[in-house]
Amino acid sequence: MRSLFNRLPCKRLAAARRSRRCLHSHSQPHPLLATFSRLSDDGPLPAALALLPDLTAAGVRADPISLCRLIKLCVRHGTANDGRLIHDHVSRTANSGGEAPDTGLFVSNSLISMYAKFGLLHDALELFGDMPHRNVVSWTTVVAALANAGGRKKEALRFLVDMKRDDVAPNSYTYSSVLGACGTPGVLAAVHASIVKVGLDSDVFVRSSLIDAYMKLGDLDSGRGVFDEMVTRDLVVWNSIIAGFAQSGDGVGAVELFMRMKESGFSANQGTLTSVLRACTGMVMLDLGRQVHAHVLKYERDLILHNALLDMYCKCGSLQEADALFSRMPRRDVISWSTMVSGLAQNGRSVEALKVFDLMQSEGPTPNHITMVGVLFACSHAGLVEDGWYYFRSMEKLFGIQPEREHCNCMVDLLGRSGKLDEAVKFISEMNFEPDSVIWRTLLGACRMHKNANLAAYAAREILKLEPEDQGARILLSNTYADLRQWLDAEKSWKVMRNQGAKKEPGRSWIELGKQVHVFIAGELSHPCSAGIVQELNRLIRLVTDLGYVPLTEFVLQDLESEQKEDLLKYHSEKLAVAFAMMNSMKGKPVRIMKNLRICGDCHSFVKLVSKSEGKVIIIRDPVRFHHFQDGVCSCGDYW
DNA sequence: ATAGGGTTAG
């Protein structure tokens, strides 16, 4: 008998065991059980739940399969209280004896999973602690719950250690869950090693988690390595690698992978499209973004995807399209509204941003802390000091949002940039936080803007106290000295940097044209069309000089002869990009340029005049905000 | 009975 069972395939084995048990234990199943089984299968849920007390009264035990199904039904319906009801029922009937030990285990595992899905981690852990036996599934469910909960990743790893100590071997389910909890390269390397050791590294689920984990830690090469080794990839694996590239700022790489994915015969789903849109957002690839839009139409109800599309239009500076989409979206959540608020603010339309925020308060969801960052950003970039103070002071009362570091930073920016440096310093000393380097850097930027070298030196020293290795402070400090033409001090500051091996990040601008992204590096004539670009640049300079352009050499940071300074200015990356764009862009269409550093004052006035003389809309996005140049005027009002 | 990928700011 025994050996016959062993030779049967698993499913049939289980069925045979069940039927054997039935024959031996009770001759007739209770009629209530049949009803319960049917109701737990496809509902209605309330009717199935109502049967539980009847079962208890009749002294009949519900079978674990039905119970597990019922628990899943509660998850689908989002009714945590019903799940609790089942838990109560099970614990009341658990110890009446006479059942296989695994029966309780299955139901308990289901319940843990249910609690985790409802975010009731406390209940999940309590139940886990009370269980007489735990198997891989129990451990895995808890590990996954902790890995997915915010801020409990360390505990997830601890549970992985504990389960091994308890002689329960993790399986591919466990590893694919726990990989998301590896917060440092060292931990990730260790977990990866043990995955290889037990031979689970070829599992697709494990692989996609590995790729994701490496990419999220910024280790693109390792992520790519895992991906390249794979023979059989599925859609999620493709999505992981594309998302990784998109999220780490390699938009071009993400798009290339997307093309390869399609060549391999996969078609994009919502997740793929979201990542591709994010890549477009990062690189200002508006044309590609618009093509993706056509595919988004299929997924009318996917909010994440629509929010990504909305952000793409905002960050490509096309607010008409953003606005049109926003008003057509059937549903809008906090993220949709926040995207719109900061999108408008970053594009220099602060007043409209605040109007959208007003609308949000009357007909939208409750703002969150990110929304408020956008609101304060709008105030600081339009010099709206009074409004900024109002929102900052009332956000806790109105929306229950406690001001955090980011909000304080916006306030320092608001006060500092509007020239109220003393108030900014006072604000810093009165904040609820210890000022960090970000705050000091904001103050330092304001000092540079208002040419207050003494305060700048103070802020820079504070930064260097906190981050002695960070060269940003020295750069900004020496820039301030340079602005003041205190060349000796600037030189001293540069020398320190040189000695520490620091190099200023080169300015880069890029532009999407046709199906390509063209990159321009300050001072380098590396583009294949460089000769033509220089010619065009000279033509533009002649034109704008007639309109009154004078090179603002104060934006050159070294002490050089003025002619050399003009040369350095002339080949700023955004000027190269503008010249290239003028030669190649379509008539009547705006030009979009993105750059990695903030735009300098000289380029700003140059582009203003080019927009006038060429009758062209030029949009330049820097890391913080946008400049829409049209007819000699910029949307930022020369305040950035 | 347990698992992997996508959205806002900094």
Which features does this protein show?
640 residues; Serine Threonine Protein Phosphatase 5, Tetratricopeptide repeat; six-stranded mixed beta sheet; 34 helices; 4% strand; disordered N terminus; DNA-binding; transit peptide
Short structural description:
GO terms for molecular function: RNA binding; zinc ion binding. The chain is mainly alpha-helical and 640 residues long.
Q: What Rg, in angstroms, do the CA atoms define?
A: 31 Å
- The strand order across the widest sheet is 2-1-3-4-5-6
Main sheet, how many strands, which sense, barrel? 6 strands, mixed
Mean pLDDT, all residues: 88
Total E-strand runs: 6
Ranges with pLDDT <50 over ≥5 residues?
Answer: 1-26
* Structural class estimated from helices and strands: mainly alpha
**Could you tell me the strand content as a percent range?**
under 5%
The geometry reads as elongated
How many angstroms does the end-to-end distance come to? 83 Å
Number of DSSP helices?
34
Helix content: 55-70%
